[in-house]
Amino acid sequence: MDSFAEQKVPGGKLVGVKLSYGRKIKSIQILGDFFLIPEETVFKIEKALVGTSVRASNDEIVGKINKVIAMSGAEMLGITPEAIAETIKLAIHPPEAKI
Amino acid sequence: MEVHDAYTNMSIDEAILESIRDNKAEPTMRLYRWKPSAVSIGTFQSMEKEVNVKRCKELGVDYIRRITGGGAVYHDYEGEVTYSVIAPLEYFPQGIHESYRLICGWVIDGLKRLGIEASFVPINDIVVDGKKISGNAQTRKQGVLLQHGTILYGVDARKMFSVLKVSNAKISDKMIKSVEERVTSVSSYSKASITELYEALLKGFTKGKDFKLGELSGDESSRAAELAETVYSTRDWNFSR
């Protein structure tokens, strides 16, 4: 299944995710007008998130992102790992699908 | 002031970055315009989601992905000046916020020379009376800092929103008014020509610094041409997201 969601981080930038998933995330692209230095870190974050269960908690997703950021010595501006995790959940469970 | 197409402009910035990395060039500042006019998107943005490519083709507007983050910018040939600052990291504060503040201060100094009181708003904006007049984007690669930014000289909101991807329903007078309430330009505050804006920015950027006006080295020119052909003009790069 393919899905897309985006949201504006309050006081920050826009973050979007383009997802392909079944029970697990098959592929993901993180989009937006944020800053992440070095920029190549985004590929490492996306790679780390492939295979993540769609039932994973936000904390689990945030943990994976923070681990990559720490290992890369990267700096993220305008969005947060929490915002990426929330946007992934939004793509998997869009508001219209909620009962 | 230099004038190039989008592919050449972005390639020159990267060629200079490489040259400084290899200790073959001094810290460099550029002031330039885009001809034909162009849309640049941030490195993490989706071209298809941000840009009306069909409309760009109709209008002869180029579209390109930058190596820096940030948002989509419409670089109108008549209505905008772009700068870039490229230098070893040790010339700048370690913190990204602080280095944005320093370089944006040079833009603010330039605007002040035209009687425009602007201020820096983190992360990367410069505003006048609460309206954005300049957006800026920084990257740091291999020990070198590259920051480029746009200074709006005039705003054609209708054209801007015909090339940036906003649904037709949103291109209403209401929408354009809303944009004009959030964005401003030099021409709203000053009768300065775009050349006078360039001269003011040049003074703002070079104040207190030893500098000389120069040209690209032969190596930089050939590397820029290579990057333009093999990266910046390619669909693989521009539509990679």
Rounded mean pLDDT of chain B is: 94
Distance between the termini of chain B: 32 Å
| Shape label of chain A | globular
Radius of gyration of chain B: 17 Å
What does this structure look like?
The complex is a heterodimer of chains A (99) and B (241). Helix content of chain A is 36%, strand content 29%. Chain A has 99 residues and is of the alpha+beta class. Chain A has a single domain, classed as Enolase-like, domain 1, CATH 3.30.390. In chain A, the strands form 2 sheets. Chain A has a 3-stranded antiparallel β-sheet. Chain A is globular, with a radius of gyration of 13 Å. Chain A starts with a strand and ends in a 7-residue tail after the last helix. By secondary structure, chain B is of the alpha+beta class. In chain B, the strands form 2 sheets. A 7-stranded mixed β-sheet of chain B has the order 1-2-6-10-9-8-7, sandwiched between helices. Chain B is globular. Chain A binds chain B through residues 12-14, 16, 18, 29-39, 42, 75, 77-78, and chain B through 42-46, 49, 67-72, 96-97, 123-124, 137-141, 241.
SSE topology:
The complex is a heterodimer of chains A (99) and B (241).
Chain A: E1 2-8, E2 14-21, E3 25-32, E4 35-37, H1 41-49, H2 58-72, E5 75-77, H3 81-92
Antiparallel strand pairs in A: 1-2, 2-3, 4-5
Helix pairs in contact in A: 1-2, 2-3
Chain B: E1 2-4, H1 6-21, E2 28-34, E3 38-41, H2 47-50, H3 53-59, E4 62-65, E5 73-75, E6 80-88, H4 96-112, E7 119-121, E8 125-128, E9 131-141, E10 144-152, H5 157-163, H6 173-182, H7 194-206, H8 218-232, H9 235-238
Parallel strand pairs in B: 1-2, 3-4
Antiparallel strand pairs in B: 2-6, 3-5, 6-10, 7-8, 8-9, 9-10
Helix pairs in contact in B: 1-8, 4-7
